[in-house]
Amino acid sequence: MPANAINKDGRHHAKLLYINGFERFDDPAIQDVVGPADLIIVQRNFVHKEVWDAMDYWRGLHKAVVCDLDDDYPNLPWSNPAHRFWIQNASGAPTAPIELLTAGLRHANALIAPSKVLLNDWKDVVFGVHVPNYAEWKWFRDLKPRKPDEKIVIGWGGSVSHYDSWWFSEIRPAIERLCREDKRVHVLICGNDERILEQLDIAPEQKLSQGGVPAEKWPRIVATFDIGVAPLDARDGDKSYDFRRSWIKCLEYNLAQVPWIATKCPVYADFAPYGILTENTAEDWYNGLKLTVDNLAEAKHAAHRHRKFGVSLTLERNVDNLILAYNKIQTLALPELPSVFYVNWDGRKTPKSLDDKEKPKRLPEERLSHIQRAAMRAAEGWGEIVVGEINIAKAMKYDIVQRLNEGLLGEHEQVNSA
Amino acid sequence: MSKLILLSGGKTTAPLTQHLIKLGYDIAVFEPNMGAALVQKHGDRVISVMGLYEPQFANIAHNEAANQFANIFKDGVEGIATRVKTLSEWKAFTGSKLKLENWLPGYLHQSILNQTTRMLCLEKLNQRKVEMCITHEDITEQFGGLAHWAKARGIPTALVPHANHFAKPELSPDIHDTSICDALAVTLHQEKWYRARAYAGDMAMTGSPLFDRWDKYQVNREWAQKVLRLDPEKKTIVYMSSWGQGTNAHDDSYRFEEALEAIALAGFDQLIIKLHPGEAPGIEQEYHRFLTEMGTKALVTRQYFEIVLSAADMVVSLGPSNSVVDAAIMNVPSVCIKMPGYTFDHPAIPEVEPDEIRIAVDEYQKWDRDDFVFQMTGNQIGKAGKNVALWAHERIRSLG
Q1: A112, A177: one domain
Q2: Which of A43, A267, A410, B71 has its Cα between 20 and 30 A from that of A29?
């Protein structure tokens, strides 16, 4: 949790509050909790007027209010149980939930997300700030890799939102083939989507399952894998729902020193040197898995060596980056300085040349010199305008020269445009 | 009663006030806004010259202007153009801005009115002996009038130039080329500049009080980025725009558009356009229109010079500018877009064509600011105001 890392760092202080508490912004007790904050992050549930009011209220006090999204709600697949609420509008809300989500984002100073793709999706609605999904190092620090025995455990853990990831990545036939060929191989599926394991056509004794565990205990489960997998559904290319996910699975495998194979996609691109990224074909998945199973000891040594990359992506190592990102957001909430204006500030457009515009030409230098000498002579030649004992004409030279020069250049421009 | 020194009240002379008061002088300040501010700060040790205005001055000044005007224009505009020989050649021009009758009568009437009013206030001052008049410039109607008044009254005059000038010799003749003051308090650069133009009076290397404000300025980059709503991860380029004074025909008004277009097209990650305070009032709208049309992301402001410099990674100026000197003092490197007729002529500041600006910014590595700052300030930052005050004090004593 970023809040834990920030509190532990000590320079700043973070607090978590349930959304139904946040809504009661008029309650003095709630005001005492939220009031000291400079930055308020609202997670997901900004689809009600009560929440928007709270966001507006605190923004009015120049606090930065940001929304946090980690899911591509407008493109939830049918397989995702949340599809009923977000897309089918099962709650019968008079306004479509995605419209409410969009409206909610407009009440925020910024959107933070662990996916740059997701930020890009919303860039026309709200300013985006990338806050990567860092891991808690303390949960991984003392973990030991699984010792070799007669089993080779291919593991995965996740939510019900990954049903399509399994079906459409082509990992299933690859695993089924490998399990048929090598009885040492076992498949451990963690989480609450039992369908994934049930639907795998492998021997029951090769199936292992693990229910949901609290977040801090999850790394210990990951460490029981010999090989981790991270299949993603890439059918829609850049538009794929799964391409809006964070890199967390690869990061967890890396920190737990588990060799891994994942779908080749932008989500895991940063991890490419530290594992196997495969095309979504049964053949490629099989080849990647087979290669790792057959060279497991070497793969584990490599995973051990690669761990330092993951350590660089822990919350503990990135408190400064988090604060930098939050500072960036905070500036959006500051009252604007008077007499400062911003042009195209929330999104760069492509600058266009005005080459077709006719530009006036500069007069030749000798002509300019002639004009200047004449203007100076005219200014010098005023004679006297004596007021009292002072010849005030001497103080008029500046204006006379200026007016004559401006007039002449104006004349030149007229000639140019004629 | 303390001795009295008359200050113009510009940014280079106002800082002398505290030092001269410590040396035992009372101070009269000519510029009305600065005069009022310094009276508020120092109480009865400061006199605001324009605060000496009396209601009957209005009648006197109006009558003087009307009488002078009637005398000058007794033969109409044609008459004055004939009498003032050097104006005769301008009769040939018929453009609306040049036609003498379109501006000369109104300008002269207003100028005589203003100057008479100021002189009436100054005359009240001369009921006390003025030991010296120190001005930041002596060429415009307002401050030139002040210097001419002091000269006519036999008051010693001193100029503390309001800026370093960067005009090349070929721009001569230029109204800035000389000073009517008896002596100059200068930076190294200014000394060379005035010497090259054969200034014959005394010069003292005091440094310029203009830069004294940086001595105690605490740069807070993070805060500056915050209040300007900048992204601290992006490189911030500040474009110091400029304006044409029009006192030299070589001032290239087209260059302003050309340079701004180049800046807008350069594709800097984070661009601040800091307007010159001398640019026309309301020109912000023009900038807004232009940048919107160009699709350029930019922050534009005429104010907050110190904050903008605190946030800057690099400065780009149109032509040589004293803002580049300010930037150098704050250790911010600069690149200058060439302005015909003007130059820093110093290796620390590359001068490039408008279409070379992006590459000049990206590839700028070398940054040896020490000699540049030395030339422009004499390394007297924080001390110059006191130096000038002590120099003036000694000069008054030596003049007896």
Answers
A1: no
A2: A43
